[in-house]
């Protein structure tokens, strides 16, 4: 893993997993997403990982029109790196998933590095009354759902987005996904330094255990040497503990309401900025310094905010 003196803090602002009933603080409208993103940047996030929502019912959306409502405002009000999802919402086609990033031409886009069972149905059993009709079926259908990211799909996403100068947050939900990334690196389709996001705690992917985190890092060391940066996200209550361990070991961190709606045991986070402020406080207590957006750009070899499409 490439050594760095600074820790890149990413914030995933809304995502497509949590639904409006789960937390009144989950940003849904363009104004809410923009405000939350800007506040997260002010709290210390160098990278903002962004999804959009349909403002009418809070359902996930990859429509460029919805992204157009908040991306320019974010760019005008902070210097954070914008990272657009290509995972989108569960069940979307690849065309739908790529649409926003193809329009926005961001500095970074996420790229899931393999297919997997993606089961979040357990959340539905904990809620009696949902605010919106789409929420329960959206969650329950994942008992019989595969998040599809075939080699053909990955190749298309990499090819089309790279043509715009976009680089990637390679989301790896299991060990095999690192080998998939190595395959595309060996073919010369992606260039170092690689920004790897280890995803721990999704049912169907690798479990949120410290031993698994270290195994994934060791595997990445064998595959990529010092040509990568390793960031870590833990789903739910594992968010802060896994991020802290990864930072101590020289890695980078991701927080945000996409990954966990909590700030502490049984306590809902009132904002993304609260989670960013907490991890920044932990980093500083450990004598670790968060990277600025410009430092993150230099580390990851990004094209700069002046070269995006919004």
UniProtKB/TrEMBL annotation:
Domain of life: Bacteria
Source organism of this protein record: Mesorhizobium australicum
UniProt-recorded name of the protein: Uncharacterized conserved protein, DUF849 family
Keyword terms, alphabetized: Metal-binding, Transferase, Zinc
Pfam families xrefs: BKACE
Signal peptide interval: none
A GO term, aspect molecular function: 3-keto-5-aminohexanoate cleavage activity
Cofactors demanded by this protein: Zn(2+)
């Amino acid at each position: 893993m490439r050594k760095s003196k600074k820790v890149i803090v990413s914030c995933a602002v809304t995502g497509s997993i949590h639904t409006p009933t789960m937390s009144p603080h989950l940003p849904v409208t363009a104004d809410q997403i923009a405000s939350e993103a800007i506040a997260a940047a002010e709290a210390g996030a160098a990278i903002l990982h962004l999804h959009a929502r349909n403002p009418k019912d809070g359902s996930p959306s990859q429509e460029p029109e919805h992204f157009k409502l908040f991306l320019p405002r974010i760019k005008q009000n902070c210097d954070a790196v914008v990272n657009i999802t290509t995972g989108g919402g569960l069940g979307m086609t690849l065309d739908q998933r790529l649409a926003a990033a193809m329009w926005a031409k961001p500095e970074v886009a996420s790229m899931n590095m393999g297919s997997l069972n993606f089961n979040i149905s357990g959340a539905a059993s904990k809620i009696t009354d949902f605010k919106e009709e789409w929420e329960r079926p959206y969650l329950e259908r994942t008992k019989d759902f595969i998040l599809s990211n075939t080699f053909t799909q990955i190749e298309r996403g990499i090819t089309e987005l790279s043509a715009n100068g976009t680089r990637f947050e390679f989301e790896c939900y299991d060990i095999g996904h690192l080998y998939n990334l190595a395959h595309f690196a060996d073919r010369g389709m992606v260039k170092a330094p690689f920004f790897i996001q280890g995803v721990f705690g999704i049912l169907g992917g690798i479990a949120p255990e410290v031993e698994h985190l270290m195994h994934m890092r060791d595997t990445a060391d064998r595959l990529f040497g010092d040509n990568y940066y390793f960031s870590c996200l833990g789903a739910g209550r594992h968010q802060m503990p896994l991020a802290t361990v990864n930072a101590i070991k020289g890695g980078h961190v991701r927080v945000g309401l996409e990954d966990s709606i909590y700030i502490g045991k049984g306590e809902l986070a009132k904002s993304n900025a609260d989670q960013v402020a907490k991890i920044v406080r932990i980093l500083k207590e450990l004598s670790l310094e968060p990277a600025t957006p410009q430092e993150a750009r230099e580390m990851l070899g990004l094209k700069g905010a002046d070269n995006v499409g919004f």
